Amino acid sequence: MNYESIYNELLNHIKQENVCLSEPLRNHVYTKLGGNADLFVTPESIDELKAALDIRKKTDIPLTILGSGSNVIIKDGGIRGLTIGMSKMTNFFIEGERLVVQSGAAIIEASRKALEHRLSGLEFACGIPGSVGGALYMNAGAYGGQISEVLDRATVMTQDGEILTIETENLALGYRESIFMESDYVILEAEFGLSQGDPVVIKAKMDALTEARESKQPLEYPSCGSVFKRPPGHFAGKLIQESNLQGTRIGGAEVSKKHAGFIVNIDQATSKDYLDLIDLVKATVKDTFHVELDTEVIVLGEDLEEQV
């Protein structure tokens, strides 16, 4: 595939600083590992996004959408085709108790923006890493709250460039799942329905949740966040801890000694280190407790040996 010619065509429609050839994706994910994207575009506007999708459709190359990469592992061989990173689409709009946020904005910033305008409902998100789009994709949640409880609707773009608004009840939001996992929609915006609140009370709750996160999670190392979904009737971290896996290491990846539900990059880990350690954890927990752990982290790309 002649990606250089596609790159040149993209430059006809998108600012040069928003288009890259063979971009190292480790610079765009929280784990700080993974291979390169053949083409990487970070659109600043709806027009740039539509141009990228039009060219992608015309050339029929693979497409991957990336938020801020907080809950993602990119394999060592990188991602083929076009990867679109949404991190430059970060605008906010507030009208009354409605907070509209573009998908590339950090969900933590959305919670802070709500606080600025004395709006309550997004306090639980003050410690969730990642983008608004990623939070919708995963129906992210923490500390007793989740996105589906405050989301009114989402605005998306189809692969044909059509813009649609979809009500929350039609987004199939469940535990760490949504319609976006089965569709090719690109998330543009989220509209949250919040309520007026006392900013002192809102801030106090956010401060308490932030302190709880910082005290319990291994934020001093790169990671992909919580690796496993909560198994019915159990807590993944507790099962991993009671399997004596904390501190277990493969290459530069380690099961966190601070929180067993996290795998951290402590010494230039590869994606293979991460994925091999995930497999070891799953196998050990199954052997010890007869419980299957399912990952919530999204794995993208190819192994090195798959590259042609």
UniProtKB/TrEMBL annotation:
Give the cofactors, semicolon-separated: FAD
Instruction: List, alphabetically, the SUPFAM superfamilies matched.
Output: FAD-binding/transporter-associated domain-like, Uridine diphospho-N-Acetylenolpyruvylglucosamine reductase, MurB, C-terminal domain
Q: Which residues cross the membrane?
A: none
- Quickly give the catalysed reaction: UDP-N-acetyl-alpha-D-muramate + NADP(+) = UDP-N-acetyl-3-O-(1-carboxyvinyl)-alpha-D-glucosamine + NADPH + H(+)
The catalytic activity of this protein is classed by the Enzyme Commission as: 1.3.1.98
Sequence ranges assigned to domain FAD-binding PCMH-type in this UniProt record? 33-212
- Pathway(s): Cell wall biogenesis; peptidoglycan biosynthesis
Can you say where in the cell this protein is located?
A: Cytoplasm
Q: What keywords were assigned to this record?
A: Cell cycle, Cell division, Cell shape, Cell wall biogenesis/degradation, Cytoplasm, FAD, Flavoprotein, NADP, Oxidoreductase, Peptidoglycan synthesis
Task: Report the enzyme's class at the first EC level.
Answer: oxidoreductase
Report the GO molecular function annotations. Answer: UDP-N-acetylmuramate dehydrogenase activity
- Residues of the active site are R176, S226 (proton donor), E296
Q: Which Pfam families match?
A: FAD_binding_4, MurB_C
- Specify the superkingdom: Bacteria
HAMAP family from the UniProt entry: MurB (MF_00037)
Q: Into which family does the record put it?
A: Belongs to the MurB family.
Q: What does this protein do?
A: Cell wall formation.
Kindly provide the name given to this protein in its UniProt entry: UDP-N-acetylenolpyruvoylglucosamine reductase
Species of the source:
Alkalicoccobacillus plakortidis
